[in-house]
Amino acid sequence: MLNPQRLAIFATIIQTGSISAAALQLRCGKSVVSRQLAKLEQELGVRLIQRSTRRLALTEIGEHVLREARQVERALANIEQLTEQHLQQVRGVLRVSCSMAGRRQLVPLLAEFTARYPQVKVALRLEDHLVDLIAEQIDVAIRTSALVDSTLVARKLSSNPTVIVAAPSYLARAGIPDTVESLQRHACLVYAVGARVYDEWAFIGEEGLYTIRVDGPLQMNDGGALVTAAAAGVGILRVPRPLVADELASGALVQVLADCALPPGQSNYAVYPARNFLALKTAAFVDFLIERMDVQPPMQGR
């Protein structure tokens, strides 16, 4: 396969009139230009230039090749210009993956981000399973799990302290739990994915970590739907506090067992493929999320 850079060098030699002048314009050694021309002629199997001590003259086939080489030279210049513009402007389609529950935090921020960068179009995918960012061409994923892939980089966005909440209507009907153990007598809303049911709620006591098993009328694989059910008075919910910040502020949900210590929840991370040159749209989005949340140092996957 022909090296397009050699075609561009050939065109520069003819444009400048000599190998020495071409080397000067290209800011490289004369021997480098001469060697690249020789390799091009070898690849094509023809002589492009008749050399003499006084001048360079194109051969007949050299004239035909020159016309094509000039198009290649223009194309390379255009590509370089497009790349520079791409690196200098925040624009293009930004593909983002996020969990179903995480949308409650992320979607309101997307409106602010797209207002700040109107040339960016966000394509958001909501899914509760890990995706292959490279294979599926995802620019950024919002995850709560630890990195295991060395081709990825993660930036911590926020911590997720856990709270136990219920609607005032539920508490008026069923009573307020006053101990951890009393939760077992209440209707509790449980997160479940496939055969995995997260019905063991962890607490921190005087002797360390312990769990109790809860039960209730609803199991769902969508944290946002569980919040909606809790606000409707269906039962008690254990949930990351950021997911219910609005409901707690409005009074639709209230915190119960606030004096009980719970283990820290999983943190949120912005995860993206490790590359030498990170697209400006990706860098701007990650920086925006950190600005709106917590600043943390980058963590390379392991």
Structural domain count: 3
Radius of gyration: 31 Å
Instruction: Find the CATH superfamily of the largest domain.
Output: Periplasmic binding protein-like II
Main sheet: strands, sense, barrel: 6 strands, mixed
Assign an overall shape. Answer: rod-shaped
Strand residue content: 15-25%
The CATH topology of the largest domain, please?
A: D-Maltodextrin-Binding Protein, domain 2
Question: Termini separation (Å)?
Answer: 38 Å
Q: Bin the helical content.
A: 25-40%
The strands making up the biggest β-sheet line up spatially as 4-3-5-15-6-16
- Report the average pLDDT across residues: 84
Main structural class: alpha/beta
Characterise the protein shown here.
There is one protein chain. Helix content is 38%, strand content 25%. It is of the alpha/beta class. The protein folds into 3 domains: 4-88, Arc Repressor Mutant, subunit A (Orthogonal Bundle), CATH 1.10.10; 92-158 and 266-300, D-Maltodextrin-Binding Protein, domain 2, CATH 3.40.190.10; 162-255, D-Maltodextrin-Binding Protein, domain 2 (3-Layer(aba) Sandwich), CATH 3.40.190. A 6-stranded mixed sheet has the order 4-3-5-15-6-16, covered by helices on one side. Strands 7, 8, 9, 12, 13 and 14 form a 6-stranded mixed sheet that branches. A two-stranded antiparallel sheet has the order 1-2. A hairpin with a 2-residue loop joins strand 8 and strand 9. Helix 1 (4-16) packs across helix 2 (19-26), helix 1 (4-16) crosses helix 3 and helix 1 (4-16) packs across helix 4 (60-88). Mean pLDDT is 84; it is low at 295-302.
